[in-house]
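Teaching note: in complex prediction, the entire set of molecules is handled at once rather than each chain in isolation. The prompt given to students was simply: 'Predict the structure of this complex.' The entities are:
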Amino acid sequence: MKETEKVIVVNDLTKKFGSFTAVDQISFETRKGEIFGFLGANGAGKTTAMKMLIGISKPTSGEAIVNGFDVKTQPEKVKKTIGYMSQKFSMYDDLNIMENITFFGGIYGLSRKEIKERGEAVIEKLGLREVAKKQVGSLPLGWKQKLAFSVALLHEPKVVFLDEPTGGVDPITRRQFWEMIYAEADKGTTIFVTTHYMDEAEYCNRVSIMVEGKIEALDSPKNLKKQFDASSMDEVFQKLARNVE
Amino acid sequence: MKTIGYIIQKEFRQIFRNKAMLPIIFVMPVLQLLILSNAATFDIKNIRLLYVDHDRTSTSRALINSFDASDYFKVMDRASSHAKAYEAMENGSVDVILEIPNKFEKDLSLGNVTALGVYINAIDGAKAGVENVYVNQVVQSFSKQVQLKYLSSAGGTVMAAKVASVPAFWYNKELDYKTFMVPGILVLLVTMVTLFLSSMNIVREKETGTLEQINVTPIKKYQFIIGKLFPFWVLGLVLLTVGLLLAKLVFHVPLVGSVALLYLFTAVYLLLILGMGLLVSNYTDTQQQAMFIAWFFVVIFILLSGLFTPIESMPGWAQKITYLNPIRYFVEIIRMVMLKGSGFWDIARQLSIIAGYAFALNVITVWGYKKTR
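The expected output is the structure of the full assembly:
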């Protein structure tokens, strides 16, 4: 792996809340244009780990470098170069599509012209022309999620973090969502995605599985299946998660 | 600067889109100003007076007539005995009992000292105090008339001239309580609306999850706070404008001083209130918590503001607390500027205190707002 290709470099990253260790010395690297699946049961520490990588939670120890910036000492620089889409739909429900795009584009420092062009492109691509003037709170969840993903990419980040982006979304929309992810990865954007759907894990280039704050497995889905002698990612996950109990 | 502009634009869009809040912001304060200013008056009129006349002479009747002639008193009836009058007081049908002693006329004509019995229902102490003053005024003017009468009949040489004080009420000549209350209530409304709105603002974004999204952007803390403050600052000044117009047009409150000075003070004062609101917002997790804390402060601020009870009559320790109370300063200033015409140097002290406060609170707010936890 060439140095320049490493987008996220994590070494012994740890987060403790009092005596509870939520993330326990995890280490991994991701490459440019890679789709990196970040799996784990509820409470395994996925979200906490992700929050450290996007600069809104301070690591207790260890280091994480995102796009060449240290999340501990340069969190604001990290934020400039990443996109983030949270579990919760987090655009303003009482603003319409273009108003949301204007706001988020604006605070990422895009020019009026860029905002207009990229905003129009998003509306066109997602086929939202007819509802462009509607407040986004009234849109169906699937549309909202695709919109949130596009807004997270507005400022053309090098990495985008997706926290369970397809939760509660119908299978067809999920499929379309993954097509969007592939298209973006092809452009060279690194995708860091958490999910509970094991079929989605199969779509990833590489997958890590977190169990109780530790990364217990990390490889391509194909190699993981071989390693755990399983026919599907679901089986891999079951075996790993059950070992703990 | 550009970033702040985008936040301001977004905040204004949200304010004007909120169909439930918009009327609350503008219609409610207007209604409250109209209603409260008329209701919260210390003007005490129609004091119910019952008298027991043991003298039954033309002089005692003249005394009662002078009570009857006063705007403040409503002479109810004559009670046959002290016990009867007491009974009426007990069941709450009278406010004041006047008992005229036997030989009232005779004592007066001889120049003796006579004592009238005055009994006042003092469950509401402030009201009783005012009633006492009114009773004294009537009795005093009556006794002057009587003196003149006996003076002239006695040849005008016996009595020495009495010294009488003639009060001149400055700044509020008619002692109109509305003149006094309207500016104060306006202060309350401007404070309450801006404090509540700002204290619920950031916490609302916490609840909807958009704050996390904001924290992931490279936005600077001061940009975010200024962007959040500005719209409510404008709103507060608009509210002041509406209130001043109402005060002038509806209540005819005089505006002696400079309007510009009033705006200057309000502009600084609002920074303080908004900073306080955002500080509350920072340290709470739900709008409910924020609302409760904001209410807690508002109630204390109002009671210790000198609006309803004069600060001079508070105990020493309470007076000291009022120095921490922003509303106290604003009530003081708005009355000084509107009624007295105070100029910049008259209010410079209060203005600098408020400015210092505003600065300190906003520094704490920006510092206390953490994008990274």
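Point out the following to students. The two ends of chain B are 26 Å apart (CA to CA). Chain B has two domains: 2-41+176-368, 47-153.
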